[in-house]
Every structure is written in structure tokens, then in C-alpha cells.
Design brief:
- By secondary structure, this protein is α/β, with parallel strands linked by helices.
- It has helices at 3-23, 28-37, 44-60, 68-78, 110-118, 124-128, 176-179, 188-197, 214-222, 236-239, 242-249, 264-267, 296-299, 302-322, 342-350, 376-379, and strands at residues 135-139, 156-157, 163-166, 183-185, 204-207, 228-233, 254-258, 275-281, 323-333, 356-358, 366-368, 371-374, 384-390.
- The protein has two domains: 3-106; 191-390, Rossmann fold.
- Strands 5, 6, 7, 8, 9, 10, 11, 12 and 13 form a nine-stranded mixed β-sheet that branches. It has a four-stranded antiparallel β-sheet with strand order 2-3-1-4.
């Protein structure tokens, strides 16, 4: 493919990404994967270049662009090599019209940018949200140790115990260590969130929003496969991916529980008031994960944020009923908005003076309200808010 043809292909894929963001469709990575299947003439170098163009354009735009072409013109303002490719050549983009305008730049839609600034995320902190994330792995201590693990290339040790960092794009899924379950791909901040649970062998631990189970696998390793671990979620599709992951990782203590939205306690009645720890990895805006999913900021609306906040309060109430006297709730969001973090914990504590908020014992991050904050700029991780709530005895 010519450079101009690559730009045109990126524009067409961006049109699909923009439409999906507006309509709640597939994420960008899936759209690109399907798009490349339909462009079998594109070689590996072409696909890599097109991917770079698509994600570069997404990062360059703040609000949702009107079109993929407008998004690419925005990127062209930062990359002078792109503008000359709008030359009308075969399979390339048409020349730029005199009155044609690029998409608007910035961090995000204005309301969201203001909300982040009000939560202390501005300047360099905000700019770092749209950087490129490295690839982090967690050594699965059920099958390996730092001393015994052999990998094709060395990784950089992370603050999280048993964590290693590699350059973005490292294909660890092709390594024997990954296929055999000795390592798992997991962001360093997510690993620290699991350490904040302080799960111990023999405990009863509930991962209330387990999804595909990445954090559940880390909790099982911390528990040394001893105790009771409940991996629950309302999303059947995501939860169905946990069993094969657990088998590969050698996890034997996990039980899957599919929840009905609004009837979660019915499915979890057996463990009501019995859990030593409940991890509430709550659904959230994902503002801390934009390095990996930059188009996510186009999908969020104020109405959707209100729904997420209601869900977060609901999950904290469920967790309160599951935890035993003297137990703990660890509340985690990969959001940097205070309305999804410190404000939720403050609201929980207002009517529950007998509960105590304590800081998780983490080696990186900073105090933020009644919890702990990790950010890409300061800590090199995804953005997280983590709080530890201790039940009265």
C-alpha cells in the first residue's frame, strides 16, 4: 500500500470507530481487527502503520470528531508528513478543500475535561492519560517464582510484587510462559489493587465484579489456592472467559457465580455476612485507562456517568451485607473522577459512622480523600482510586 492509501484506510476505519462510539458499538481494537480481515491485501507493515494512524488520530481529538477525515486532518496538524498525502492519488484521500476544518483537539469533551480538572487531573497529569501504555505482566506464583521463571526477554521490575514491565506491543501471548499459565497480562496498577485486598490463605474472598477474572486470578495466587474465592458478575459473556483462564493458571479454589442485576444477594446468600474481604472493582467511566482505550472518552456521557455512580453505590451496599464483622471492603475504580472515587466513599461513611476508612499499604501512589490514587503521570500505571473500608467488629 502507498502511504496515501494507508491514510485513506485509516480514515475509513476511524469513521467506524466514531460511529461505534456514538452508538455504543464495538471497541476500536475489534473494529480494526475486523477491518484488517477485510483488507487482506494489507501486509503486516501496512496494518501496523494504519493502526498507528488510527490511534494517533483518536488521541489527537478531544470531543467526538464529525468524521474520520476530520480526525485525520487534526493529526496532520501535529504530523507534517500526513498533510501532503491528501493528494487525490489512487486509493488515497481527496485533496483538502479550502474551507475544510480539522476536528477539535483537547483532552476530552469539555464537560469531562472540566470534571477531571475539578478532580485534580489537569496539565501534565491530564496529558499523561493519552500517552501509550507499556505491557505489564504478573508472575503467577501458583506455577512460578521470580527466581525460576525464564522469559525470552528480561522485564523491568514493578513496584507490585511479582510484576514485570515490557514495551508496548510485546507479544507475550506467544511465549510458553503465557500459554502454560506462569504469567498473566495485568497492568501494574491493577496488580497493586489486588495487593490492597491483602487476601490471605484460608480466607473467604468475594470478587463482586470479576468480569473475565483477571483480579480473581491474582487473589487466588495470594491465597495460595487455600480458602474460598467467589468470582461473580452480571455479565455472562465476560464471566464465561474465567474458567479456561483459571484452569490455565492452576486456580482450584474459585467458584463462579452469575448474578442477576438487582438480585445479587439472592445468588450470594450463602456467603452473606461471611466474607473476610469483598473486592468491589466497580464498573466506572474508565478515565484511568485512556492510554489503552483512548476512544472511551467519546463514549461517556453525563447521563451514563450518573448511572455508573448509582451502580457503584449499589455495589457498596451489597458488599456491606456480604462482609463479616471485622472484615473489609476494598473499593476500586479505574477512574480519576472524584464522583466515582473519594465522593462515593465519603457518601458511604456519612450514614455508617461505625465503619472505618484506612489507607491500603501500597508503596506507590498518594493519599486522595479517604483513599489512594495511582496515575499514569506519577506512577506509570493506569489511573486508579483504591479505598479500604473496615467493618465494625
Amino acid at each position: 500500500m502507498t502511504p496515501a492509501a494507508r491514510v485513506q484506510a485509516a480514515i475509513e476505519l476511524l469513521d467506524q470507530v466514531i460511529a461505534a462510539a456514538k452508538e455504543g458499538g464495538a471497541p476500536a481494537d475489534r473494529i480494526l481487527a475486523e477491518g484488517f480481515r477485510g483488507r487482506r491485501y494489507a501486509g503486516s507493515k501496512d496494518r501496523r502503520a494504519i493502526r498507528e494512524l488510527v490511534y494517533g488520530a483518536i488521541r489527537a481529538c478531544g470531543p467526538v470528531p464529525e468524521s474520520g477525515r476530520a480526525a485525520m486532518l487534526r493529526l496532520a496538524e501535529a504530523d507534517p508528513a500526513i498533510a501532503p498525502l491528501f493528494d487525490g492519488s489512487p486509493y488515497g484521500p481527496a485533496p483538502v478543500a479550502p474551507d475544510e476544518q480539522p476536528a477539535e483537539g483537547g483532552l476530552a469533551p469539555q464537560w469531562l475535561e472540566q470534571a477531571l480538572a475539578g478532580s485534580g487531573i489537569a496539565g501534565e497529569e491530564a496529558e499523561a492519560l493519552l500517552g501509550r501504555a507499556p505491557l505489564d505482566i504478573r508472575i503467577n506464583t501458583l506455577k512460578a517464582t521470580c527466581e525460576t521463571l525464564e522469559l525470552p526477554e528480561p522485564g523491568e521490575p514493578l513496584p507490585a510484587l511479582n510484576g514485570l514491565r515490557f514495551p508496548s506491543g510485546t507479544r507475550v501471548e506467544q511465549w510458553d510462559a503465557w500459554r502454560e499459565g506462569r504469567i498473566e497480562v495485568q497492568d501494574g496498577g491493577s496488580q497493586l489493587a489486588c495487593l490492597a485486598v491483602a487476601a490471605r490463605p484460608g480466607e473467604t474472598v468475594i470478587d463482586l465484579c470479576a468480569g473475565a477474572g483477571g483480579k480473581s486470578l491474582a487473589l487466588a495466587a495470594a491465597m495460595e489456592n487455600r480458602g474460598i474465592l467467589i468470582a461473580s458478575d452480571t455479565d455472562r459473556g465476560r464471566l464465561s472467559r474465567f474458567a479456561p483462564r483459571a484452569q490455565r493458571a492452576g486456580v482450584t479454589i474459585a467458584q463462579e457465580v452469575l448474578l442477576d442485576r438487582g438480585k445479587e444477594l439472592e445468588a450470594l446468600h450463602e456467603w452473606r455476612g461471611r466474607a473476610d474481604a469483598v473486592l468491589v472493582d466497580a464498573p466506572c467511566s474508565g478515565t484511568g485507562t485512556w492510554r489503552r482505550n483512548p476512544e472511551a472518552r467519546w463514549r461517556l456521557s453525563e447521563a451514563r456517568l450518573t448511572q455508573l455512580i448509582e451502580t457503584q453505590d449499589h455495589l457498596l451496599e451489597i458488599a456491606k451485607q456480604l462482609v463479616r464483622p471485622g472484615g473489609r471492603i476494598i473499593y476500586v475504580t479505574c477512574s480519576l473522577l472524584d464522583c466515582e472515587g473519594s465522593e462515593r466513599i465519603a457518601r458511604f461513611l456519612v450514614s455508617r459512622a461505625e465503619w472505618n476508612a484506612s489507607l491500603p499499604p501500597l508503596s506507590v501512589g498518594r493519599v486522595h480523600g479517604t483513599g489512594w490514587r495511582l496515575t499514569p503521570f506519577h506512577d506509570g500505571t493506569d489511573g486508579f482510586f483504591i479505598a479500604d473500608l473496615d467493618s465494625p467488629c
